Amino acid sequence: MSAVRMGLNGDEKPHVLAVDDSVLDRKIIERLLTNSSCKVTTAEDAHGALELLGLADGQQNFSNTVSDVNMIITDYCMPGMTGYELLKKIKESPTAKEIPVVVVSSENIQTRIEKCLEEGAEEFLLKPLRQSDVKRLRCHLTKDGNPTDEGMLCVGR
Amino acid sequence: MERNNIRRQVALMRQSLFTQGYLDEQFVQLEELQDDTNPNFVEEIATLYYRDSCRSLQTIEKSLEKTPHDFNKLDNHMHQFKGSSSSIGAKKVKAECQQFREYCRAGNGEGCMRTFQLLKKEHATLKKKLEAYFQMARQAGPIETASRPK
User: Fold this and answer.
1) B102 touches chain A (CB under 8 A)
2) Cβ neighbours around B128 below 10 Å, total
3) Which residues form the Response regulatory domain (chain A) (predicted)?
4) How close, in Å, is residue B57 to chain A by CA atoms?
5) What is the DSSP letter of B143?
6) Which chain A residues touch B52 with a CB distance below 8 Å?
7) ipTM of the complex
8) Which residue of B has its CA nearest to A33?
9) In chain B, how many domains are there?
């Protein structure tokens, strides 16, 4: 399996913020995303993610924030703030609400899925994630809402 | 050829991990993430899993020692542990996790404790098998894993 590398221009790589409290799952999602030619930043909890986005309550220090996040993938079950609560905060933010958010969970609970989709999640996927899931998400990542050549990455799985 | 012989053994070891039910499809997914730029990815994941899960098991063990059992807490801990086990494709371990969670929901402390012992056994067995497998695989050099239609 070869990952199609997106040119030499770093700007062309979509930037994905992956949030998961499991160090194991963070490592796996990072690899899955890198394999799909994405630039990845990880956070180990929702609060960390909000800080990276510059959305944490009372945030003063913005030196560690990341820019140009094209998608957020978050685990649902996390200690402290859940992925659902993180999703809500993102969708309430005037600056971040347009960023597609994908929620992942190891539990297939219909009400949970509905709740996340109603709150504006792009997709709800079951863990463990597969390369095919990530490749498909990669297709949704377009700058202007129109399929581009990047759609090539979705072929063949 | 010695190397071919080792490679054959590695392939057989690998196959038996699946046929004997120790690993499931998720492990194959991880293997597919391994390539020249990440030649030890699967072993790194396994190492991370065992480091992480040992801690989880200790936490659960301590929780089980406290009575009355806090089934909610036990269930939460096990949910996390089950997740990790699932991420690495540890099929038998995952099954014991599921059983444990069912006992938690039923408020069955005896069942939890019994299942926990089985779980630890499966966890340890898989660890030994994976260690042996990775060691053999390293001797064999890079091998082709079963190619699957993509």
Assistant:
1) no
2) 9
3) 15-142
4) 15
5) -
6) 22-24
7) 0.88
8) B33
9) 1
Which amino acid type is present at position A155?
Answer: V
CB interface of A with B, residues 46-105, below 8 Å: 77
Q: What tens digit of pLDDT does each residue of B15-40 get?
A: 999 999 999 999 999 999 999 899 99
Q: Which of A30, A38, A41, A49 is nearest to A11 (CA)?
A: A38
- B4 closest CA partner among B99, B112, B141, B105: B141
Provide the residue count of chain A.
157
> In chain A, which among 5-34 make CB contacts under 8 A with chain B?
21-25, 27-28, 31-32
CA distance B56 to chain A (A): 11
Range of the domain at B120: 2-140
Closest to B134 measured CA to CA, from B19, B52, B23: B23
Residues in chain B: 150
Q: What is the pLDDT of residues A29-75, one digit of tens each?
A: 999 999 999 999 999 999 999 999 999 988 888 888 888 899 999 99
Domain with A93 in it: 15-147
Q: E-strand spans in chain A?
A: 15-19, 39-43, 71-75, 101-105, 123-126
Q: A5 pLDDT band (50/70/90 cuts)?
A: very low
